[in-house]
TrEMBL record, chains A, B:
<feature type="binding site">
    <location>
        <position position="191"/>
    </location>
    <ligand>
        <name>L-homoserine</name>
    </ligand>
</feature>
<dbReference type="GO" id="GO:0009088">
    <property type="term" value="P:threonine biosynthetic process"/>
</dbReference>
<feature type="binding site">
    <location>
        <position position="106"/>
    </location>
    <ligand>
        <name>NADPH</name>
    </ligand>
</feature>
<keyword id="KW-0915">Sodium</keyword>
<comment type="pathway">
    <text>Amino-acid biosynthesis; L-methionine biosynthesis via de novo pathway; L-homoserine from L-aspartate: step 3/3.</text>
</comment>
<dbReference type="InterPro" id="IPR002912">
    <property type="entry name" value="ACT_dom"/>
</dbReference>
<dbReference type="Pfam" id="PF01842">
    <property type="entry name" value="ACT"/>
</dbReference>
<dbReference type="Pfam" id="PF03447">
    <property type="entry name" value="NAD_binding_3"/>
</dbReference>
<comment type="pathway">
    <text>Amino-acid biosynthesis; L-threonine biosynthesis; L-threonine from L-aspartate: step 3/5.</text>
</comment>
<dbReference type="GO" id="GO:0009086">
    <property type="term" value="P:methionine biosynthetic process"/>
</dbReference>
<keyword id="KW-0560">Oxidoreductase</keyword>
<keyword id="KW-0791">Threonine biosynthesis</keyword>
<keyword id="KW-0028">Amino-acid biosynthesis</keyword>
<dbReference type="InterPro" id="IPR005106">
    <property type="entry name" value="Asp/hSer_DH_NAD-bd"/>
</dbReference>
<dbReference type="InterPro" id="IPR001342">
    <property type="entry name" value="HDH_cat"/>
</dbReference>
<protein>
    <recommendedName>
        <fullName>Homoserine dehydrogenase</fullName>
        <ecNumber>1.1.1.3</ecNumber>
    </recommendedName>
</protein>
<dbReference type="GO" id="GO:0004412">
    <property type="term" value="F:homoserine dehydrogenase activity"/>
</dbReference>
Amino acid sequence: MNGYRDLRVALLGCGSVGAQVARLILEHGDELAARIGARLTLSGIAVRNLDSPRDVELPRELFTTDAERLVQGADIVIELMGGIEPARALITQALQGGADVVTANKALLAEHGPELFEAAEQVGAQLSYEAAVAAAIPILRPLRESLAGDHITRVMGIVNGSTNYILDRMDRFGDSAEDAARVASELGFLEADPTLDVEGYDAAQKATILASIAFHTEVPVDAVHREGITGITAAQVEAAKSAGYVIKLLAIAERITSSDGVDGVSARVYPALIRRDHPLAAVHEGKNAVFVEAEAAGELMFYGAGAGGAETASAVLGDLVSAARRHVVGGPGIAGSLHAELPILPVGEVNTAYQIMLDVRDEPGVLAAIAGVLAEHGVSAASVEQSVAQGGGARASLVIGTHVAREADLAATVDALRTADRVLSVTSVLRLEGAE
Amino acid sequence: MNGYRDLRVALLGCGSVGAQVARLILEHGDELAARIGARLTLSGIAVRNLDSPRDVELPRELFTTDAERLVQGADIVIELMGGIEPARALITQALQGGADVVTANKALLAEHGPELFEAAEQVGAQLSYEAAVAAAIPILRPLRESLAGDHITRVMGIVNGSTNYILDRMDRFGDSAEDAARVASELGFLEADPTLDVEGYDAAQKATILASIAFHTEVPVDAVHREGITGITAAQVEAAKSAGYVIKLLAIAERITSSDGVDGVSARVYPALIRRDHPLAAVHEGKNAVFVEAEAAGELMFYGAGAGGAETASAVLGDLVSAARRHVVGGPGIAGSLHAELPILPVGEVNTAYQIMLDVRDEPGVLAAIAGVLAEHGVSAASVEQSVAQGGGARASLVIGTHVAREADLAATVDALRTADRVLSVTSVLRLEGAE
């Protein structure tokens, strides 16, 4: 068409996302060529098994099992195999050969991002990965480019659709944790081994990517404080609901200053209470959203599908067009930028608020005793509610909402409450985010 | 610092946005230089009156009244004067001289976008205007770049903060239209002449910009079907609420196919009912949000501040960094892309649903008569509700929700109902959007 030059695109992997990417490249060829100023030629699709069934009917001659050879002749390599190897070796090979790389491989980026960014930078190639966080939602490009003149202070995302589906069912339909997980599993929201999702590993990988882009700092996935949703009970969800909150699993990347004055970054994943009128509270089912706070821009939110073959393919195509345009117009590629090198601070240095539920002996002086424990740790109560006594007159249930304080002090307060006089048990501890 | 080259930035206008832009350039100089690879030098600020008070204290020697001269030596010109002239002449001068231009001037873009895009393209300069729609929210760049490999089918935005503030007060506090407008005015949400906001002119300007970016087609502002919020009553808001809806002023840009098979674009602004669980329903006060539907990506939403000096300045700075990086790395600039040249179709060709409220004589056969009128026009009812009779037994109030149909048929249905037997009056007609 119109004498456009050709750009050879090698696709590695042909699962639900890869098949859609191949379809879009083939079906929208003319339109993509008009937007790019060059024609994309799908030079091949590397797969493990030539005979596996595909979501989309694709020309058989495109398939190959020789990924290494396919990468050799490519201008742009799209890696959608997942996993660490051979994805890492193939991406490195591609970048070293000067090809641009588009990937959705969050695990690989979380583990080996810096070395891949460096490989890209050495040859001026581009490594882009919009689809690695929150699938279809354009979030990495806006963070990097649209907010390039602003100071991002906090990024707070619902970035795992499976756990959001479970928590949303518990909240909206009153499901038990087990029932919600079973439905999620039946609908394909959960993997056979759900640990990656429910223990927050997947969200932690995305937190490292968000933190590194927002703060230009390498954030190893091991440095992300991680708590999953397996401890969340129907009773907690119900109590949250009646108090005007909803529980969401949040991946948070934040600029913080430690108690001894060190400016740094916190990256963490945990289930937390969000006020029901917060924009993140309206994120239902398997949807994702990323809430961003910046010094000048204020509060922004990006919302959309967090999974799905076609949805994720949309983000891959956006990166592909960007890489292809770079081949046409020139200029160095964009990879990671880790120039700020801020220290990663432990979760104890974070400022947050706690909601603590506890059963106490219903005696005179119990509130004073508890207030004393809080005061000892420099924590003050924003609210104290006494709920109906459970199973007889001798016990009462208390719900304490604290003011914002240092996480370490809040955690120490809870430890002290567990052994405090007249306290029978601490029944729930949840952080409250997005309030201030 | 570090031998970076200098880029000369000329700022035209120093209102609430301009003052913040100047502050950010001056205060964040080192950081911007690190991100750009060049140092931004604010070469001057053109104002009408050197002695006007400013929101931010700025070096007096930067100010000048000679905008033309300031533009001459600039690498990048930031236009924040507003209005058509002299902004248009100065931007044209800047582009013709090869400077990149960043502007937030939606009125100018809506009126003269195509000629400015052409001026930019002729010299390979960049014209960017992220701040012109929904202030701080990164929406234009994601539409253009992140979704570059996808097909956008509909863009639906709350893009005017003033009218959203009014409608939100009416919805949440039960204010009358007059009371809500008075509060909005007192809080500075409304201009002295509120016509631009409440009659939907401002939203229409933004609709042309959104439509032209989403569909690569020139959409003159006169081609935008426009209805304001002045006809919206407290009774309508209340009725919407009790039926599970909220009324929002929407700017809609949509790919549609006319009844005779022509593929084209619809751009329109009107108040419409949105289901309360739609993400746009949670956009309160003066906030903005843009809901995007794309073939592969599905539903996306971008949410944030729709006004404010610092907030708007954040978007201007994002464009400034992008333009400055282009000076460093080379490559042609991005301006408008109107290559698709789709026809603009009249509002009658749009598919939507109506909610029609009417007072009727409470007699046998009245429902059959009304159903007959609908059927004649090929419109079918999704729901019919009879509310409590008002002021005596002879009258009843009906609320009819239609299925999706052609706007022209729906409008004709309403016209026919007005004169139909047993119908006393049509008391409210509102479109229902975002349902399907």
